[in-house]
Amino acid sequence: EALRGQGVTSVSLHLDDTLFSGPAWNEAWEAGNEAWVSGVQPIMVDVSAYHGQGGYPSDPALHAAQTFADHLREAGVSVQGSITRAAAADSATAVASVSSAPLADILALSLRTSDNSMTEVEGHLVAAAAGESADFEGAARAVLAQLGQDGFDTAGVTLLDSSGLAKGNKVPARLLAQVVDRAAGDQGGEVGRTLLAALPVGALDGTLDDRFLDTAAAGTVRAKTGSLDQTVSLSGVVTTADGRLLAFAVVVDGFAEGGLTAARSALDERLMVPLAACGCQG
């Protein structure tokens, strides 16, 4: 509309995706993860539509530019030649812009659905905002630095990505529990409440929608899930039968490949359900 308002009916199109640097694919991700994460680039169309389905575009940013070109043509603005990558000139004039949804809404979607691609982009953006290189290494440095500034002990942490897909990651359950505890406590403030509200609810939504059905944990557990071939985790809060709010983090790993379902069931049935049902004091 802005172009037509200026009388422009033909353009050439360049894609500036220079916000991120480094490879789009993390070398620590195992083959087969293509169904669970896309190449990490600063622009992509409808990222959540692909989650868990596979079929991500091989070049998400270029696919987004091509989609934009299609919309331009549909609006009567022809696109001349091929789309090329080029950094926008400092003297460039903005024709139009679009603002994203609030960050809290974006984080809520990525947490609720456990969307690895969104989380990796968020990590890269944290790095860019912190003045680090906007790549996997920079994201890890920025996240750990922020945790340190917030008073958390990151000793023993190895962070190779922002989604948790890299098998070399090492994050103590202690740290996860401390983050959730801070969010739920008096120091959590608006940020903490936003985090807790974004977590999936047992037997209701997100990655917990089919867990804890018809148990004491239904509706009383809010937690972030983690599921790999040989690791399962759950970190969040649970309201017990006597109304106590408890923060927890559990990581189960080292079981044989193919044992995910059994490990997750054991976590749910032997720990979480009894914890939610207890009238425990302490």
Helicity, in percent?
Answer: 25-40%
Give the amount of beta strand, in percent: 5-15%
Low-confidence stretches: none
> What is the alpha-carbon Rg in Å?
22 Å
Tally of individual helices: 8
Reading the helices and strands in chain order gives HEEHEEHHHHHEEEH
Total strands: 7
Strand order of the largest sheet: 5-6-7
Q: Report the average pLDDT across residues.
A: 95
Report on the biggest sheet.
3 strands, antiparallel
Approximate shape = elongated
Report the end-to-end length measured between terminal Cα atoms: 64 Å
Structural class call reads alpha/beta
Structure description:
The protein is α/β, with parallel strands linked by helices and 282 residues long. 35% of the residues lie in helices and 12% in strands. It contains eight helices and seven strands; from the N terminus they run αββαββαααααβββα. The protein has helices spanning 2-5, 60-74, 103-113, 116-129, 136-149, 173-184, 189-198, 260-277, and strands at residues 10-11, 14-15, 78-79, 84-85, 221-228, 231-239, 245-253. The strands form three sheets. A three-stranded antiparallel sheet has the order 5-6-7, sandwiched between helices. Strands 1-3 form a two-stranded parallel ribbon. Strands 2-4 form a two-stranded parallel sheet. Strand 6 and strand 7 form a beta hairpin. Helix 3 (103-113) packs parallel to helix 7 and helix 6 (173-184) crosses helix 7 (189-198). The radius of gyration is 22 Å and the shape is elongated.
